[in-house]
Amino acid sequence: MPQGEGETVRLRPPRNTLNERAVGWWRVQWLLLTALHVVPLAVLGALIAPARFWLLLPAAVLAVAGAAAAVLFPLWWFRTHRWEITEDAVYVRTGFFWQEWRIAPMSRIQTVDTVRGPLEQLFRLATVTVTTASAKGAVRIQGLDHELAADLAGQLTRITRDTPGDAT
After folding, report:
1. Is residue 168 assigned to a domain?
2. How far are the Cα atoms of 44, 59, 65, 91 from residue 52, in angstroms, in the given order?
3. Which among 66, 81, 96 is the end of a domain?
4. How many domains are contained in the chain?
5. Local confidence pLDDT in tens for the 168 residues of the chain
6. Which domain holds residue 32?
7. What value, to the nearest 5°, has the Cα angle with vertex 45 and ends 42 and 46?
8. By three-state DSSP, how is residue 131 classified?
9. TM spans, by residue (predicted)?
10. How are beta strands 125-132 and 109-115 bridged, if at all?
């Protein structure tokens, strides 16, 4: 039923959470990013005696901050990221302080891709990318079980094939 003038559409939060393995995937990403900064400082600190303190101190601070972030942020993200696919649209909600809701109507979907980077493969995860004509870019559902992602890509392909295009 089309929405009449003055009617407000209220969306409920998407129902689905990501796969629990996404927490480990995000943690490894944080730890690798932290190591990218800590290791060069630590190596230089070990090699350059006069600057040892000034190199090892920031290395230690970055290591502690990176480890804390690797523990806390992935849990936080897991609690806030949600997704859902209905017959009408793909819904994704991310963020806590700056919440972002992305909605891709089925009639506007152009392509559906499944991506599995090396770390995602290690954790048996995948990302489903739904591309529309939106200037905001594609809608991504990250941290899905790789088999579920393949099923969703197939489901989305079938639904969009059977959905008439939007004439607007």
Report:
1. no
2. 8, 10, 20, 51
3. 81
4. 2
5. 444 555 555 667 789 999 999 999 999 999 999 999 999 999 999 999 999 999 999 999 999 999 999 999 999 999 999 999 988 889 999 987 888 888 888 888 999 999 999 999 999 999 999 998 877 889 999 999 999 999 999 999 888 887 776 544
6. 16-81
7. 90
8. strand
9. 30-49, 55-78
10. antiparallel
